[in-house]
């Protein structure tokens, strides 16, 4: 049986202007900071959590959770998706579907 995909509430953007973006979402938008690390700040927006990551900019990335990231990646590639970026140490894998949407597949929490 194929593993089910389940969306999380997380949306990630990456930007070269990390300081400006985090200031904007905290001050201008008034979103509460719920996560802070060296490379990422997370904000509670109400309907979703917005994570702003340092690095080369890209469009928003949605997240789907699965019990097996590698198996999900293989299934998606076979269905016409392209691997955009992956980090097996997390584990996570950014995929672009045949319709242009980029999303992350991450590991389902077992707890």
What is the topology?
Blueprint: E1 6-15, H1 18-28, E2 32-36, E3 40-44, E4 49-54, E5 58-66, H2 69-78, E6 82-87, E7 92-96, E8 102-107
Parallel strand pairs: 1-4, 5-8
Antiparallel strand pairs: 1-5, 2-3, 3-4, 6-7, 7-8
Question: If you had to describe this structure to a student in words, what would you say it looks like?
Answer:
The chain is an alpha+beta fold and 111 residues long. The protein has one domain (6-107): 2,3-Dihydroxybiphenyl 1,2-Dioxygenase, domain 1 (Roll), CATH 3.10.180. Helix content is 19%, strand content 47%. It is built from 2 helices and 8 strands, in the order βαββββαβββ. The protein has helices at 18-28, 69-78; strands spanning 6-15, 32-36, 40-44, 49-54, 58-66, 82-87, 92-96, 102-107. Strands 2-3-4-1-5-8-7-6 form an 8-stranded mixed sheet. A hairpin with a 3-residue loop joins strand 2 (32-36) and strand 3 (40-44). The chain is elongated. The relative contact order is 0.22. The mean pLDDT is 92.
Characteristics:
eight-stranded mixed β-sheet, Glyoxalase-like domain-containing protein, 2 helices, 2,3-Dihydroxybiphenyl 1,2-Dioxygenase, domain 1, alpha+beta, 111 residues, elongated
Brief synopsis:
This protein is an alpha+beta fold and 111 residues long. It has helices spanning 18-28, 69-78; strands spanning 6-15, 32-36, 40-44, 49-54, 58-66, 82-87, 92-96, 102-107.
């Amino acid at each position: 049986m194929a593993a089910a995909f389940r969306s999380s509430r997380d949306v990630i953007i990456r930007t070269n202007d990390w300081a400006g973006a985090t200031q904007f979402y905290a001050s201008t938008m008034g979103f509460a900071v719920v996560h802070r690390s060296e490379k990422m700040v997370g904000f509670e927006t109400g309907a979703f959590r917005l994570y702003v990551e340092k690095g080369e900019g890209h469009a928003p990335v949605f997240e789907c959770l699965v019990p097996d990231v590698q198996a999900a990646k293989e299934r998606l590639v076979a269905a016409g998706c392209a691997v955009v970026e992956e980090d097996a140490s997390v584990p996570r894998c950014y995929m672009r579907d045949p319709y242009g949407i980029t999303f992350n597949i991450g590991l389902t929490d077992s707890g």
